[in-house]
Design goal:
Layout (H helix, E strand, L loop, with lengths): L1 H21 L2 H6 L1 E7 L7 E2 L1 H14 E15 L2 E14 L10 E13 L5 E10 L7
Parallel strand pairs: 1-6
Antiparallel strand pairs: 1-2, 3-4, 4-5, 5-6
């Protein structure tokens, strides 16, 4: 079962990378559970699918978001799976970026707790990226 769940998660990640890049906010939000927490750097958590959708609806207007996600390990217990992986981000600010938000690159590790929901879909419940760049470098 763990191998099958890992493939589902890796497919979600591949889709997410494309959707962030193309600004498909509704598709991004559907990967997350209604009661999700997405922990964003230097900001309060995004709590709930609606908050994820609203944040990314604005953020994709600020510029290009190019993520890579690489799953390192998945542990599965019943309807819960925990994924540990690495990420890179290449953000290119556009004309609509808020003052002070500049193009930057980041890399780090992440942990995501996934849950198989009533409809059979695996959705992210807790999403926690942690940069490995020194403070001020990202």
């Amino acid at each position: 079962m763990a191998d099958a769940v890992r493939k589902i998660i890796e497919n979600h990640n591949a889709n997410l990378c494309g959707w962030y890049a193309s600004g498909e906010v509704d598709a991004i939000a559907e990967v997350f559970a209604e009661d999700c927490w997405q922990l964003t750097p230097h900001a309060e958590p995004l709590v709930g699918r609606t908050a994820v959708r609203e944040f990314w609806k604005q953020a994709v207007q600020w510029g290009e978001w190019r993520f890579t996600l690489e799953t390192q390990e998945v542990v599965v217990s019943g309807p819960i799976a925990v994924e540990r992986g690495t990420y890179t981000l290449d953000f290119r600010a556009g004309p609509a970026a808020p003052p002070g938000l500049e193009s930057n690159e980041d890399q780090g590790n992440y942990v995501v707790m996934w849950r198989q929901e009533q409809d059979g879909q695996w959705r992210g419940v807790w999403d926690a990226p942690v940069s490995t760049l020194p403070l001020g470098a990202a």
